[in-house]
Amino acid sequence: MPGYLVEDTRKVTTHRLIEMKEQGKKIAMLTSYDYTTASIVDAAGIDIILVGDSASNVMAGNHTTLPITLDQMIYHARSVTRAAKRALIVCDMPFGTYQVNATEGVRNAIRIMQETGCDALKLEGGVEIIETVKRILEAGIPVMGHLGLTPQSINKFGTYAVRAREEAEAAKLLSDAKLLEEAGCFACVIEKVPAALTQKVVDSVKMPIIGIGAGQADGQVLVIDDMLGKNKDFSPKFLRRYADLHSIMTDAIGNYVRDVKSCDFPNANEQY
């Protein structure tokens, strides 16, 4: 039964997420990019729906998240927001919309909130963007951080390998997490770092830490197309597939093609 693990059906808020960490309740987060999928995800009891810039990969077929535009993210976020009744809706600010300066970042953040109705925004980076984060928060917009492997910086990293294995990078990540919390962020995603470092961050801050490829944390996030098995070409160690929609969809479409070509569809009961 959908939502069978959800005891509290009230709208999820940033305040309630912090309460969940205090109470030791884990936070479940998935991406969605369209109305129909988001309706299912929300009804199934998810706590947070991330309208991720991973739409650039999943929906548009790009190799990185960099090409997706502000207008495109607004389109996806607006669609998801219309569907969700319980989940907190977080929208990624796409590459180039907050890195130039704080003023431009605030302007773009306000536009996303006004035009989509989402609940919060997610930005990648730590000390490098902290002034922009502060300004967006001062405008009354909740912010979720994102540290570790930050996909918008893939050209700088040059690889999707695990981050923060070295002591200096690990120390910076911990420092950045504390900085984001001090600025007022309500939560932070940590991506593809050693599990021991994730635990250290979890224990060092009061805001919830959402992991992806980072071991146990206050919550977890996955890209929905990956965890449903629609994409068979992506198989990182951290991914658990909960379905095989690639095979199910291929079989269903093949059956449809067969029935159309054999004139089995539509039959007498499927026409007016």
Describe the structure.
It is a single chain. The protein has 11 helices and 8 strands. The two termini are 35 Å apart. The chain folds into 2 domains: 228 residues, Phosphoenolpyruvate-binding domains (TIM Barrel), CATH 3.20.20.60; 29 residues, no CATH class. Strands 1-2-3-4-5-6-7-8 form an 8-stranded parallel beta barrel, surrounded by 7 helices. Helix 4 runs parallel beside helix 5 and helix 8 packs parallel to helix 9.
Key terms for this structure?
272 residues, alpha/beta, TIM Barrel, 2 domains, 8-stranded parallel β-barrel
| Low-confidence residue ranges | none
- What is the 3D form? globular
**CATH level 1 class label of the largest domain:** Alpha Beta
Oligomeric state: single chain
Gist of the model:
This protein is an alpha/beta fold and 272 residues long.
Write the layout of secondary structure elements.
Elements: H1 14-22, E1 27-31, H2 35-43, E2 48-51, H3 55-58, H4 70-83, E3 88-92, H5 102-116, E4 120-122, H6 130-138, E5 143-148, H7 154-157, H8 167-183, E6 187-191, H9 195-204, E7 209-212, E8 219-222, H10 224-227, H11 245-261
Parallel strand pairs: 1-2, 1-8, 2-3, 3-4, 4-5, 5-6, 6-7, 7-8
Helix pairs in contact: 2-4, 4-5, 5-6, 8-9
